[in-house]
Amino acid sequence: MGKILDGKAFANELGQNLKEKVNNLKKEGITPHFCVINIGDNPASKIYVRTKKRRADKMGIIQDIYQLSADTKQEEALTLIDKLNADPEINGVMVQLPAPKQIDADELLERIDPNKDVDGLTPINVGHLWMGDHFVEPATAEGIIALLKHYEIPLAGKKAVVIGRSNIVGKPMAALLLEENATVTICHLYTENLAEITKQADIIVSATGQAFLVTADMVKDGAVVVDVGMNHVDGKLVGDVDFDSVKEKASYITPVPGGVGPLTVQFLMEAVVKLTRRQHDRE
Ligand code: GUN
């Protein structure tokens, strides 16, 4: 049976360190302060926003939540982002995704000041990411790389297969694995013979939102399996990976919950603190 990659324990370990960094900032009269804009009533988003808030409180970071109604107009959201960009007390801004249909989410992301872009999703920061000279990275991908390194899992030269090509997870994951010198394949909805590709992989990262997509027959003996999925099935939270069967073949595997989720939140907080420090060092 594969070893569990315990993201929750690792996030807590990192949290101790980050709290100290926040305390040091506070001694200088600086309290990291970021804002989450959530538009509409997506139930998963509301849970994510609350989870972040709890973590921010624990770290000593101020998190404001701007909960906007489902019929919010594009201009209102843009005006709010402009206001937060211009406010020197605010160190970070993020727009929780997905946004309602009438909203052009890409335009909102583009409007965020790249220096306050805690999510690393503005076009400028996506460009920096792919150029390999980044300061903030999308939190899930960054957290996964940190977790693999924490468990001393070699990446250089390894075949990594990322399932999912979202801007939030799949693409940044591929960029960071590439930077670690892995040989990266990105698979998605249109990929033919997915199992043939995943069976070659030393490392599989699945971020599709499709419960039980990755089954034991798709996994090579000894592969490392990272599950980013957060799917609700019969009132239970499950990942993209059929954990019970895949854990018998994998050398390492992340559980859901308790794997990638806590790391995403922790690395978002790390980004808030990094941007706060940089903002003040530049003043
Ligand atoms: N929705 C789900 N995950 C994320 C994330 O990492 N960032 C943003 N902005 N929205 C999300």
Structure description:
By secondary structure, this protein is α/β, with parallel strands linked by helices. The protein folds into two domains: 29-113, Rossmann fold; 139-262, Rossmann fold (3-Layer(aba) Sandwich), CATH 3.40.50. It is 43% helix and 16% strand. It contains ten helices and eleven strands. Strands 1-11-8-7-5-6 form a six-stranded parallel sheet. Helix 1 (7-27) packs parallel to helix 10, helix 6 crosses helix 7 (170-179) and helix 6 crosses helix 10 (260-282). The longest helix has 23 residues, at 260-282. The termini are far apart. The mean pLDDT is 97. Residues 48, 94-97, 119, 139-140, 168 line the site of guanine.
Write the layout of secondary structure elements.
Layout (H helix, E strand, L loop, with lengths): L2 E2 L2 H21 L5 E7 L3 H17 L2 E7 L5 H13 L5 E4 L9 H7 L11 H9 L7 H12 L8 E5 L6 H10 L3 E5 L6 H5 L4 E4 L17 E4 L3 E3 L2 E3 L4 H4 L5 E2 L6 H23 L1
Parallel strand pairs: 1-11, 2-3, 2-4, 5-6, 5-7, 7-8, 8-11
Antiparallel strand pairs: 9-10
Helix pairs in contact: 1-10, 2-10, 6-7, 6-10
